[in-house]
Amino acid sequence: MRWLDIFRLRLRSIFNRGSVEHDLDEELRYHLERQIEEEIAAGKAPEEARFSAMRSIAALEQRKEECRDARSVNLLSHFEQDIRYALRQLARNPGFAFTAVAVLALGMCASVAIFAFVNAALIKPLPYRDPGRLAGVFESTPQCPHCNLSWFDFIDWKQQNKVFRSLDVYRDTGFIMATPEGARPATGARVSAGFFRTLGVKPAMGRDFNSGEDRLGAPRTAMLSYKAWKQRFGADRNVVGKVVTLDGAGYVIIGVLPRDFEFAPADSAEIWATIDPSQSCEKRRSCHGLYGVGRLKDGVSIESALADTKIVAARLEKLYPDSNRGQGASVVPLTEVIVGEIRPILMVLLSGAALLLVIAYVNTSSLLLVRSESRKHEIAVRTALGAGNGRLMLQFVTEGLVLVIASSAAGLLATRWAVQLLTKLIPSNLLARMPFLQGVGLNPHVLLFAAAVGIMALIVFALTPVIHFAGSSAHHLQESSRSVSSLAWRRVGSKLVVVELAIAVVLCAGAGLLGKSLHNLLTVTLNFDPDHLATVHVVAPPDRYANKEQQVALMRLVISRVSAMPGVQSVASTSLLPVTMNGNTNWIRFVGRPYDGKHNEVNAREVSSEFFKTLHAQLLRGRLFTDAEDLSKPRVVIINQALARAYFTGEDPIGKQIGNTALAPDSIRTIIGVVADIREASLDAEIAPAEYEPANQNPDSEFALLVRTSQSAESMLPAITGVLHKIEPGMVTLDEVTMSQRIENSPSAYSHRSAAWLVSSFAGLALLFAVLGLYGVVAYSVGQRTREIGVRMALGADPASVYGLIFREVVWLVLAGTAAGIATALAGFRYMHDMLFGVQSWDLSTMGAVTAILISTTLLASYLPARRAASVNPTEALRVE
Amino acid sequence: MSKPVALLQGTLDLLVLRILALEPMHGWAIAQRIRQMSSDVLQVGQGALYPSLHKLEQNGWISSEWAVSENNRRAKYYKLTRAGRKALENEVEQWERLSGAVTGIVHAR
Predict the structure, then answer these.
(1) Predicted local confidence at residue A704, as pLDDT
(2) Cα–Cα distance between A480 and B30 in angstroms, integer?
(3) Interface pTM, i.e. ipTM
(4) How far B76 CA sits from the closest chain A CA (Å)?
(5) Which residue range is the domain that position B39 belongs to?
């Protein structure tokens, strides 16, 4: 009851201000009149009585003010006044306002935008039930720590492990889908039957795969992704039960996956089918094509799961030495599989953005310091006129609030735009592998972060002037009118500049290292010429090109038809394009050498006879094979230099023979040539040993085509696919890009490029902020010392000594900032080695260049105020007061 | 005038509450009553009185209404609320403890 009354009173005080004011007037007037009456009664003349009463009720206005305070009416009206005052202050000094808002908005934009990506990739949990209990399960070999499982190994692991509640496998694949418009490629995945149950994903429509549907002879069934259901089946509500033809075989559609389902490791597969144990790879224990995903039993940690899986792997190694020697196990959290690759770049970018934000805070607060210094007089006047300490502080908080609100609004707008831009800059092939980035934007998490950034800014801005004036309540008008340079300010201000310079050095050095890495990466030796090279992936219907003769005939036809096109210089095929990955390996054994059972794992590529010529690759020894060396001829092979170096040290590999681990007669092939190391894997990966077999001796219905063109390769792409479809209408073509685009959009190039560009822009801004900060300090200090400089010059100091005076002050700041920055960089960059390529974290030339840039720009920034100081006219300077 | 007010800060609230416990009255009368009852020792200026009244009202300890005064003019009358009565008991108790303690020290030998 009482609280209700109080609340009502407060409301009245605030919202019914007019009547409250009126009451107050009337109440005090009544008092005044009674006072006058009393004085008259005491015998004073009316006029005198009135005068004395007025005096006794001294400062009527002040009393009213006190009453208003008691009613806390003032809090609100003060706030209103403060805001108006703050806006007036900012409007009076638009340069300051603009700089402060721009600096802060840029800092916020960078950090919030990067955080949006960090949130989407690293913070948001995976969209599966209890994702923390999911693990990625792999076989591991010394060369390949997270490698594929084979079907038979998976079955044994599933049965023998004691740590997984369920264990399943997946592999991404592609299908040729029959549509009314003809054959169309579709992205797909094959999974073991329990895959979706392990993830905890339920279909939005229809049913999940039943257990056993991945067994030999089970009817063919498929599930659709939500997107495929909408785009390929027109969101047909009756799609379940229909039959879709994939690679020439009918699959019954049994279900549609939920709209928000995504599984990054299988790209964005449109069609999900079960593993088909009748496929050739699934029939061999040594053919590794699957990745595992398991749900841990309650209470089982990743470490104990790994230990248990290793025991199973060791058991299989003993049981099947031929296929399983050296095949260990690896179990990692599923998040690691999905976001492990982009974590380092995101962490680097987040650190960069955080540093930029700090420098923005520091910069704005030093601007505020300079300004509060010049407002000393104003503060002193207001104190003298009766403004309390609390009242002054509230004023600063309000001014900070106005700044923060303005820059948050600008920053958030910029962030929205930046996030869109950054997402657009991700090549679509990479975005498909990172479906979790598709929802990136200003969601509640990100806005919360933005609010935290804003509140931090508010605290910094409110505290800066408060600290500056705290304890100096004895600021006297007298003192403030003399512009004696405040020592306290110079100490704080210059420390802030050192911090800014140090951060700028760290960011510039980081940008330098990342830039150098990018340069190294893009100029890495490819040992082939990527210009004027068109590439396209070709998939012929496997049912119509089932045997090797048909496949060889098709490949020959394709090559001859495309070669006949105008503008084409040469054409070749390969099983896997260069700059893709290490993988698709063979285990080789050498004829005539003792065998220790080790797995000598080498990249295996099946290429057509024109492959090396088309790539402009270099033959070092021996000869190339010809188109005539096909299934009817003895098997031959060309090896790369890395293979020769690894296995033929000190001997000539030409004429030597290699085969599979069992040295099966049909696997024996003779080495006829050695080529320079063509970069098969990503730009930053090690060169691995590789063998190139004639595609005519080991053909496939699926291959990649390389076309060397005399005109722009990109302009040839449509014509090339046109010719291909004319040869075989049932064939699908995928990934039509030029080799240069392929390299440019490769994951390693993209991550290095984005890191280098973003950190460089952070560094550029940081340098700008730091130089601005330094300029502010020096210009202010010069302004404060005008009189002193005037006196010095009047006493005979020449301009050179004035320059010296200013520069001496600057040099210390710059040296301290640079030294602190370099030290921080050296200590911090050790954690960045994942992002560096061909450059050490302490790279001397980078550090030297950064130091030089910093020193020259800062000296330039201090030259302007120094020149102003040196051109001071002594008579005027002395008259300044 | 302003100096003793600072000294009387808490005490003034007590005095006002105590006076209003007798009967509702307006500001002027409160000041007069304090003077009379203290035999002219305590003089409360309006500078301290009105802020105190407004504060007590905001606390919900007294309430106010406009009424016609003894000289037939509109004046703002304050009266003690139930919460005010409780507050007064508290304040009195505290004052007695304080003054007892001070007296004890002053007269200590």
Answers:
(1) 95
(2) 46
(3) 0.78
(4) 6
(5) 2-106
